[in-house]
Amino acid sequence: MLSKIAVLIFLGTLFVTAKDLTADNTEQIRIFSASSAAEILPQSEALPIEVFQVLDLPLSVHEASLVRSDKSLFLKLSLANSSELKLVGLRYSLVSIDAKNQIQFIANRVEGFSIPAYAAKTVTFKTPLKVKQKDGERLALMVEQVISRESIWEVVKAKDAFEAYARGDYSVTPVVLHVANQVDSPRDLPRVFPFYDEEF
User: Fold this and answer.
1) Where are the beta strands (DSSP E) in the chain?
2) Which residues pair with 152 in a beta bridge?
3) What is this structure's pTM?
4) Is the pLDDT at 75 greater than 80, yes or no?
5) CA end-to-end distance (rounded Å), the chain
6) What is the average pLDDT score of the chain?
7) How confident is the model over 130-159, as pLDDT tens digits?
8) How many Cβ atoms are within 10 Å of 41's Cβ, its own excluded?
9) Same domain, residue pair 20 and 55
10) pLDDT confidence band for 46 (50 / 70 / 90)
11) Separation between Cα atoms, residue 98 and residue 159, nearest integer Å
């Protein structure tokens, strides 16, 4: 009789110990899974960018950001075409503005895309950017040139206007020069521009 009781007590002890071990292991697995997911899942690396809007351009930027992919940063823009022409490219300046409202130019590039008349589109350009944003700095972007096959819109003295914007002087209105595009490729020939991604 005593031996049976001893066996029952022993089995009960094993059951409780096994239950505790299972609970501990489950908790360890849960902690490991959470930490592993934090290492594997990509963090939200989108850096917001202020937009210095040039109202006389036929292209407006509604949203701008730098998005991370494969350890590189790429410019993502939400664009709207307010003209009756198909737009095929732009030139932009990207700067950082420090706490003293001084600007540091990061990039000045030409990128290609395709937006029909009176249409909107979000594009992510494939040209990687090297940006090291310091504490207290903010990023800002201005479109300096817009290109269609028929016309070119150019911001006159774009750097001066951008520097005034960085200082908070919004009284300086950028002047836009509109000229015929006499150097663009014919309509039946392909254009050579960097690659980009389209998002609708």
Assistant:
1) 47-48, 50-52, 59-69, 72-81, 87-97, 103-115, 120-125, 138-148, 151-156, 175-180, 196-199
2) 147, 179
3) 0.70
4) yes
5) 79
6) 78
7) 988 788 899 999 999 999 999 999 999 999
8) 8
9) no
10) confident
11) 16
- Domain identity same for 68 and 36: no
Written in H, E and C, the secondary structure of 73-127 is EEEEEEEEECCCCCEEEEEEEEEEECCCCCEEEEEEEEEEEEECCCCEEEEEECC
Residues 144 and 108 in one domain: yes
Q: How many domains does the chain have?
A: 2
144, 94: one domain: yes
82: pLDDT strictly greater than 80: yes
Domain with 102 in it: what CATH number? 2.60.40
Q: Are residues 37 and 53 in the same domain?
A: no
* 190 vs 128: CA distance, rounded Å: 23
Q: Tell me, what's the pLDDT at 187?
A: 52
Segments forming the whole domain that contains residue 27: 1-41
Give the SS3 label for residue 50: strand
> Measured between alpha carbons, how far is 75 from 89 in angstroms, rounded to an integer?
14
